[in-house]
Design a protein that fits this description.
Layout: E1 3-4, H1 5-11, H2 17-25, E2 29-31, E3 34-35, E4 42-43, E5 49-51, E6 54-55, E7 63-68, E8 98-99, E9 108-114, H3 117-123, E10 132-139, H4 144-152, E11 155-157, E12 160-161, E13 166-173, E14 179-186, H5 193-200, E15 205-213, E16 216-217, E17 226-228, H6 231-240
Parallel strand pairs: 9-15
Antiparallel strand pairs: 1-4, 2-3, 2-5, 5-6, 7-9, 7-17, 8-9, 10-14, 10-15, 11-12, 13-14, 15-16
């Protein structure tokens, strides 16, 4: 059965579907010896697909949860040679995995990595509104009005207002209780969304940790540690994105 080229590439673990589309558009992909630069082309199982002259092969699909440490890049590689999240999997995972979404350099916590480009595409698509829960240490202590603004949506700039968030005060922090630790759940995937929200209400983020992605929770994972997803977690992810798991057996 024929399938779109970028989907086949994503399923083979070459890259996410979006990244595969970029590879196609920039001339890195050949089908049966011919360069393809147009998105949407369908290929057959018998077609020979090459990326930078290397044939692709279908890999077993794998899924991992990492507790990303502070000061690590959420990327497959870094031009400045800084440590990336993939460094924690070297010599232990043979498949070509990549992170689903991003966490800032100084943000820690739950990060999903996989070679399943189709799931990556669905988890990062705005229509699915995947919940992401963070614990933020912020400067000062937001009052009731600040929390109401976060729950209603905060205007961040002329063209964007944050979606309603779930927030609660966890505790007051600092030697004299001058700061606050707040749990916040959002359903958006914009860069720096949580930091921008608290900046907008006048309480900048000092530390930020993502404690849950969808239903995936860090539990006892230490920074830099990772584990495979179990069958229940994987099934829940596919159900959350209205798909069916291909790895439930």
């Amino acid at each position: 059965m024929s399938e779109r080229l970028q989907k086949v590439m994503a399923h083979a673990g070459v890259a996410s579907r979006r990244a595969s589309e970029q590879l196609i558009q920039t001339g890195h992909v050949r089908v049966n010896g011919q360069v393809v630069t147009t998105l949407g082309q369908k290929v057959e199982p018998t077609d020979r697909i090459e990326v930078d002259h290397k044939p692709i092969h279908q890999e077993a699909l794998v899924y991992f949860l990492l507790n990303k440490p502070r000061g690590v890049i959420t990327s497959a590689a870094d031009e400045k040679h800084r440590k990336t999240v993939l460094d924690y999997f070297k010599h232990q995972v043979a498949e070509r995995i990549y992170p689903v979404g991003r966490l800032d350099y100084d943000t820690t916590g739950a990060l999903l990595l996989t070679n399943d480009g189709d799931l990556d595409y669905r988890l990062t698509h705005p229509k699915h509104e995947i919940p992401k829960t963070y614990v933020a240490k912020v400067t000062g202590i937001p009052d009731a009005t600040d929390f109401d603004r976060l729950r209603s949506g905060v205007k961040l700039d002329a063209s964007h207002q944050s979606a309603p968030a779930e927030v609660r005060l966890v505790k007051k922090a600092g030697a004299t209780g001058q700061n606050a630790v707040i749990e916040v759940t959002i359903h958006e995937g914009r860069n720096h969304e949580v930091k921008n929200m608290f900046q907008a209400i006048g309480h900048p983020v000092e530390k930020l940790k993502r404690i849950a992605f969808a239903e995936l929770k860090l539990a006892d994972l230490e920074p830099g540690q990772w584990r495979p997803l179990n069958k229940r977690e994987l099934r829940n992810l596919f159900e959350l994105t209205e798909g069916g798991s291909r790895n439930e057996n």
